[in-house]
Structures are given as C-alpha cells and as structure tokens.
Design a protein that fits this description.
477 residues; Amino acid/polyamine transporter I; 0% strand; single chain; 70% helix; 19 helices; globular; mainly alpha
Length: 477
C-alpha cells in the first residue's frame, strides 16, 4: 500500500483508550438491559465471556500481526484472500450506516429532556429526528476531513458522555438502594433468563453492545506504534466498558422499576424517576446533554474509523481509485470520509420510511446488529486460520498460544451465530412487525448482494485492463 505512508500518526494510547470507551460504552444499552429485569445480569455475563473476551483477544493478536491501515479488511484478506477482505469491509462499513441513525435517534431523544416538557412535543416528530441525525453527521464528517487531530478531540470530549453519566447512575443507584432498598425482587427465579419473542431483540442487543473493539484497528497507519498501543488501549478501554455495562445495569435494576425504562428515551426516563425520588431533579438536564453527547461520540468514533475501509478498498482498486486519495493539507482520506458521511446522512433520512419513531429505532437497531455481526465470521475465522503462521518481531500473541486462540475464536463464532439469528426478530410492540422483518432482511440482502456485485465488477474491470495492456515479455531467441 503506497498511499497510507503519507497519513499522519496522531493517535496515542490515551486517544485510543478513550476511543474504545466512546465507541463501545453506549449508555443506551444500560437502560435497555435493565428494563428486562434481573435476569439480564446473566445475559451480560454470557455476552462478556462468549463474545467480548474472544473479540478482545482476537483483535489484540490480529492487530499485532497485521497493524496496517484497514484492520479487519487486512486480517480477512491475509487469511482468506481478496474477496473475503473486501466483503468483510463492505458489510462492516455498510452496517454502520443504519447504526449512525440508531445511535443519533437516541441522542436526539435524550436532548429533549434538557429543555423541559415543551420540548417533548418533538418526541413524535420524524422531521426533528431526521434533521438532528443529518446535522450531526455533517459536522462529524467535516471535522474528520479536517484532520485526525480535530476528529480525535471530538471523540475524546465525547467520552465524557460515557463516563460521567455512568458514574452518576451508579451513584444514584447506590443512594436509592441505601434509602429505599431494591426496586426489584431478587431471587433465583427472577435471575433466570426466560425465552420469549419479546426478549429476542434485547438479547441480541446485549451482545451487540460489546461490539466495536475491532474498529480502532482500521486506523492502523494513523496510530503511533500500533502493535503495542492497540492491545494496551483495548485492555484499558475494554475494562471500563465491561465494568460500566454491568455496574450501570445493576444500579438501575435496584433503583428504578423496569416499566420506567424503554425505547430511545429509556435511560433518561429512568434517571428522571430516580433523581426526582431522591430530590435531585436538577440533575436531569445536564445528564440529558451528557447522554446525548455519548450518542454523538459513538457516531463520530465509528464514522472516523469505518471510513478508512473504503479508503483501503480504493487503494486496492475495488472501489474507484479516488477513494484512496489523501488530502494534501489535512492528510486524511477525505474522499472516503466525505462519501461515507453523505451515505450516513442519506440513511438517516430514509430510515423513517413507513414507520414511527420507535419503529424506526428498532428497525435500525436490528439491521445494524445483523449486518455488524456478519464480518465477525471472517474475523474470528481469520484468527484460527493464521495460527500456523510465524509471528513477526514485536508482535504479541494471545496467552496460551494456538490452543487458546482457537478456543476463543470458536466461542466468538458461536456467539456470532446466535446474535445474527436473534437480531432478525422484531420487538414485541412494533406496530408493523412484518414490515420490520422485511426491512431488516431485505436491506441486509441488498447490501451484501451489492458488495458482491461491486467486487465482481471491479475484478472484471481489472481483467479488462490487463488484457488491454498486456505485459511485454522477452522471448528467447
């Protein structure tokens, strides 16, 4: 790869650790989980062991083996060839298009809580949610085009929207428990998960919440000493994420009735109930703005990292070469970032078609969950495939070597299969469940099929170029 040599290495350990926190610790999942009742703690544990730990170990080793720009694109390509690399990248960057809208709908709903009851009239306004999402995506795109330094500081500041609300929720939960006892009855029966169609999207959401550790590796040529920085940043940021999800959910469980938390505004409904109960109602407005910042930060982090995948595809000539261009002043892949940001804006505007705000939110979450997890089949399989290959000097291997790596990757694959299946099931209260399923499966099939078509078309063009310009070979006399 020739172009990435001119990229600027601006991301250090602090930047990357905060990146993993803002991209991985999405506050919205805490309320979603707590609303399901005490059994969610066992689901969190299953997701932590079955998916999060295998993913962290996989990313640590593969990032150390192949620290180049592109992350999972390069991992899958090295393990299985060009098609695997491209389709892994394609499904991953396409999965974030609906994810941007889903997380920014959450941010939009949270913002309304900071401006009183009059602002709540916008809670059912599709125009408000579309404009909020499109406006923030435009700002995020421009900042990332202007440079890694501008983009990383938006991520760093937005991490406060993950950390501070979490600390407040845990503190309020402890106060409520000390004063009033637990809001739920904790028993063996209550702690046991029970299968139902209503819980399916929630279970996939818990596993989906732990996704994201692979994203930072896409900026490998913009990270200082990536072989060392990425594993340590994953350890630091991943620890905060894992502890935060479990502790935050437990705090809401014991402090707020499950009926007070649901939908895009679920967390702040719970915080409003809890803070009023404790005589701290003034906390609601700043908490709403911080939680909204968390949603904006999540979108910013994934746009900045995932936009590097079409950049690498442009260098490899599977997308038009213009995608591989680097801005001479800002030293960023500005075309890839700009096109990707524009596509995210388009998805934000289209996501409301034929449904209400809550229905659009659930469709976007379900579609993002399904398409996000498809690349993990290649990621976990790549770790297994490369185990017999030698490690370069300075690369780090999973403790336990080949047997541990294969076992962890197999656990990750099993969790991926389960999550993909569960993510196709709509929420029980969706007013148009058939439409929701059709949207999730239909749009996913279109996105994957489009990726295959783009790859095949690129191969045909490359073959035609070779035939039109054959390499001259010397013929022995």
């Amino acid at each position: 790869m020739s172009s990435p040599a001119t990229l600027k290495r601006s991301l250090g350990f602090r930047d990357l650790a905060l990146f993993y926190i803002v991209s991985g610790l999405s506050i919205r999942w805490i309320a979603t989980a707590a609303a399901a009742g005490p059994s969610v703690l066992l689901i969190w544990l299953a997701a932590l062991i079955g998916f999060f730990l295998p993913l962290a170990a996989t990313v640590m080793e593969l990032s150390s083996r192949y620290p180049q720009e592109g992350g999972m694109y390069i991992w899958a390509e090295q393990a299985f060839g060009e098609f695997a690399g491209f389709i892994t990248a394609w499904t991953y960057w396409m999965s974030n298009l609906p994810y941007f809208s889903a997380v920014l709908y959450f941010a939009a709903a949270s913002t309304l809580f900071a401006f009183g009851k009059n602002a709540q009239s916008l809670a059912a306004s599709t125009g408000y949610f579309m404009l909020f999402s499109a406006g923030w995506l435009a700002i995020i795109t421009l900042l990332n085009i202007m440079g890694v330094d501008a983009g990383k500081w938006l991520n760093n500041v937005s991490s406060l929207g993950s950390i501070l609300p979490l600390i407040v929720v845990i503190g309020l939960g402890a106060m409520a428990y000390a004063r009033f006892g637990s809001a739920v009855h904790l028993s063996a029966a209550a702690m046991t998960p029970h299968w139902s169609m209503k819980n399916a999207i929630f279970w996939s959401g818990v596993f989906f919440a732990f996704a994201g550790l692979e994203s930072g590796s896409a900026m490998g040529d913009e990270i200082r000493n990536p072989r060392r920085t990425i594993p340590w940043a994953i350890l630091a940021g991943g620890s905060v994420m894992a502890i935060g999800y479990v502790a935050g959910t437990a705090a809401l469980l014991v402090a707020v009735p499950a009926s007070a938390m649901s939908g895009p505004e679920g967390l702040l409904n719970g915080v409003r109930t809890l803070s009023a109960h404790l005589g701290l109602a003034s906390l609601l407005a700043p908490m709403a703005l911080l939680v909204s910042l968390n949603g904006v930060g999540s979108a910013a982090a994934f746009l900045s990292s995932t936009s590097r995948l079409p950049f690498v595809a442009g260098i490899h000539n599977y997308l038009p070469p213009v995608f591989g261009r680097i801005h001479p002043r800002f030293r960023t892949p500005w075309v890839a970032i700009g096109v990707y940001g524009a596509a995210g804006i388009g998805m934000a505007l289209l996501g409301q078609a034929g449904t209400n705000v809550r229905g659009a939110y659930d469709v976007l979450v379900g579609m993002a969950g399904l398409t996000t997890f498809l690349p993990y089949f290649f990621v976990f399989s790549a770790l297994i495939r490369v185990q017999n290959r030698p490690m370069e000097a300075g690369a780090l291997r999973i403790p336990g070597g080949r047997p541990a790596a294969i076992a962890l990757a197999a656990m990750g694959l099993a969790s991926t299969v389960a999550t993909v299946v569960l993510s196709t099931i709509p929420a029980g209260d969706d007013p148009h469940p058939v439409l929701a399923v059709v949207k999730i499966l239909g749009l996913t099939a279109v996105l994957v099929g489009a990726g295959v078509a783009v790859f095949v078309a690129a191969r045909v063009v490359r073959r035609g170029q070779k035939q039109a310009n054959p390499v001259r070979r010397s013929v022995p006399q």
